[in-house]
């Protein structure tokens, strides 16, 4: 999936949004933003579980000179459109990240808490094994 956004690029050209996914279910996928010259200027990485309809935003960044143009919002909105009806959470956030995700929660009415994965399918094998051991005793 590739799309174009009209952002304030220096030469007026739109930025390109590309979706990249791994073949493994629950594997890491990402939306990548490239400037008119093809340089990566933003990225949103996530994992999603189709079975549980949950997802986890792993990281989101936009290059400093491209910030404050709505590109981060656009990445999150693209994710929500791509995975409609999913519940989401995020990894631990920096102070600007907390402010950003709080604003996105208000704007989209989707809760974006930080914390562990919302379903066991998105946990790593070590964490799943540890949880199983704890629950067995």
UniProtKB/TrEMBL annotation:
The keyword Transferase applies. Keywords: Transferase. Residues 1-137 form the N-acetyltransferase domain. Signal peptide: none annotated. It comes from the Bacteria. The keyword Signal does not apply. This is GNAT family N-acetyltransferase. Pfam families: Acetyltransf_1. GO terms for molecular function: acyltransferase activity, transferring groups other than amino-acyl groups.
